[in-house]
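Lab manual, section 2.4: Encoding a predicted structure.

Procedure: take the sequence of the chain (360 residues), apply the prediction step described in section 2.3, and record the output as structure tokens. A sample record is shown.
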Amino acid sequence: MGVMNMKDVLTSFSGKRVFVTGHTGFKGSWMTFLLKELGAEVMGYALPPNQENNHFELLELDKKIHHVVGDISDLSSLNNVLESFQPEYVFHLAAQALVKKSYNDPVETFQSNIMGSVNLLDVVRRCDSVRSLVYITSDKCYENLEWIWGYRENDRLGGHDPYSASKGAAELVFSAYARSFFAARSELGAATARAGNVIGGGDWSEDRIVPDCIRAAEAGESIVLRSPEATRPWQHVLEPISGYLLLAAQLRKQSQDFSGSWNFGPATDEVRTVSDVARTITQYLGRGGVEVAGSPNLHHEANLLQLNCDKARQLLGWHPRWGVEKTLMATAEWYKFWLDGMNVEDVTRRQIHDYFPELT
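Recorded output:
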């Protein structure tokens, strides 16, 4: 099982057709921008961005790639777009990604995260050009027992809240397609990827700690924390993306050896509390403050969740490049650029080159 170095991974996407679902979202916009920087021909398929000042529009990605507005719940549309493009690589990121929203609208969450994923898998099943599929779910696909060690890829799937349950179910759907259909296609490598809490510039989602810090700072207010002592495996958005790219390249090269499930998360000693993150971000920004809510959160939220990434380290040669302090500094830097009215495309590109010195 030969492991590719990152320079070879990055150059392997040049001139290749890459299909990305969810490209208008936070993680998807970083992935799409990076792929374009690598010389890939990218087609994105997603709903329009639903926040002002979103990363996708700030980077003007609609002018740089094949941009298709579409819903993964629309099987016919998704199939037509994929078949017309004939991609070699597929990255599936489209999802309803918020725990709180899943309580408010569980039906939409299950529809998007389960049936939308079924649609994506089924159109890939019928598209002969696809050679590498990376199907992104979440660390929350695991049945969280609040234990102190990281979850491994073969640990039990589950979920207390609708979002987590939908991601566990999406993994089961993938497993069925992988064993029923993809196993018969020796030229297709397909894998799921599970990442911990991702932060970085350009995330404006509601009820996420960093965007809430930025909104509070912009308004000259303090952020109010619901669960200040909850811990998360914080990592910069480029960390899992580097894992997705490495996995995709290896799937293309050795499809059967790298198919399966993979965790991408920070070292366990990099875990920080929500309070630590909020205070560090506001300190870097030089504005805003932190308060703790007087009443408890009404919905269940995990207090302890981290991943064991030994498989990715040993078999893929992947490892985190930025520690939590570098991650928080880079995140705060991006938002400070935005708050000061500066060009965020410049800071996005600079941070990509900082993370990937192989590009220079």
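Check your result against the sample. DSSP finds 14 helices and 13 strands in the chain.
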